[in-house]
Amino acid sequence: MDAPASSPHATSGFAPWSPAFAADPYPAYAELRAAGRVHWFEPTRQWLVPHYADVSALLRDRRLGRTYLHRFTHEEFGRPVPPAAHEPFHTLNDHGLLDLEAPDHTRIRRLVTKAFTPRTVQALEPTVRRLAAELVGRLVKQGGGDLLAEVAEPLPVAVIAEMLGIPESDRPLLRPWSADICGMYELNPTDETAARAVRASVEFSGYLRGLIAERRKAPGDDLISALIAAYDEGDRLSEQEMVSTCVLLLNAGHEATVNTTANGWWTLFRHPEQLAGLRADHSRLSTAVEELMRYDTPLQLFERWVLDDIEIDGTTIPRGSELALLFGSANRDPARFERADELDLTRPDNSHVSFGAGIHYCLGAPLARIELSASFRELLREAPGMRMAAEPEWKPGFVIRGVRELLVEL
């Protein structure tokens, strides 16, 4: 596909590999929104979509897809065949719900939903609260530390591990595997990033295949056993689909929660009056969590392939193009949110797009909300004087955006 005429005036501030941009992308988003509804970005050969109305509509538009392989070969779609060395990553990724379209997505989501029911998620709430209390208790006992490493990261990983029935001794393996695999979701990943993702894909897949074999022989009260047993209209999940589902549940099930927790507290520390109000009235918490996800979006960008030509504001986007839907910009769009750049922990009708929309709406959203409410509530209650000890640095990644650490003192 030939490159369209670029719009440097619109994209000059969009610098996803710049540390300054990663620290605060929101002024650049405002420039993009003011300049138009869609912009070509040559470094990643993507169309940037910054407005809430467009992002929300396109997430539901079936002329777009997370994959194109259900309709086209790579050659037919005008895309290069991925390097053979990357095959373990793509096998793992391409069999998960996140990167499938109908009919496979429909079938697998129906089967996974049979195992991942609202009752299953709700039944986890006491476990989530217990784990949050233990982690916060340790942080309080030591007088502070890195909130990211001590609370934000271990809580959702432990919850997903508990759901899957992963033995406690093996759980330290999970976060490094996940981080390496998720590196491939950043823009233009390096060869080194790809090599780490491939290695993690091989190791994680091998580990899960062993666990699935054990559960086939001796089913337990865990999600892997439930996935093995899931059955609908003659369909079952293949072993690869189970492996990919488990990896997706870990990756998608904790990356956003980790960054919402750490980024959320960083936001609260910079808005002391609103933090004081939340400390005085914990009943605001569920509304506050939604606002923190809107105000500083953990997943800044989500991609879609154009399967059939579409038009945005008079610009034809041809089949074979890739859209970058800017969640972070959509969530700060003043056309949708009053005082969009202001934090309002009591904001009503907060229809942010942080969990996506359409058929790919986040399956784990209810669990994420339980985890976030549990950790924030416990920290508000047990560490009422918690304050930031040092200005955080941001990780180099921009798509899954978060701080390296969040040092706090009590």
Q: What can you see in these coordinates?
A:
- This protein is an alpha+beta fold.
- It is built from 19 helices and ten strands.
- It has helices at 8-11, 19-23, 26-35, 52-59, 74-77, 87-94, 104-115, 118-123, 125-141, 147-152, 154-164, 174-182, 191-217, 223-229, 239-269, 272-280, 285-295, 327-330, 365-382, and strands spanning 39-41, 46-49, 64-65, 144-146, 301-306, 310-312, 315-317, 322-326, 387-388, 407-409.
- Strands 1-2-8-5-3 form a five-stranded mixed beta sheet, sandwiched between helices. A three-stranded antiparallel beta sheet has the order 4-10-9. A two-stranded antiparallel sheet has the order 6-7.
- Helix 12 (174-182) packs across helix 15.
- The protein is globular.
- The mean pLDDT is 94.
Keywords:
about 400 residues, three-stranded antiparallel β-sheet, alpha+beta, Cytochrome p450, 19 helices, five-stranded mixed β-sheet
Distance from N terminus to C terminus (CA atoms, Å) equals 56 Å
Widest sheet: strand ordering: 1-2-8-5-3
Number of domains: 1
Assembly classification: single chain
CATH architectural label: Orthogonal Bundle
| Poorly predicted sequence stretches spanning 5 or more consecutive residues | none
In round numbers, the mean pLDDT is 94
CATH superfamily: Cytochrome P450
- Major sheet characteristics: 5 strands, mixed
Report the total helices. 19
CATH top level label: Mainly Alpha
Overall form: globular
> How much of the polypeptide forms β-strand, as a percent range?
5-15%
Number of strands: 10
Order of helices and strands: HHHEEHEHHHHHEHHHHHHHHEEEEHHEE
Helical amount: 40-55%
The value of Rg in angstroms is 21 Å
CATH topology: Cytochrome p450
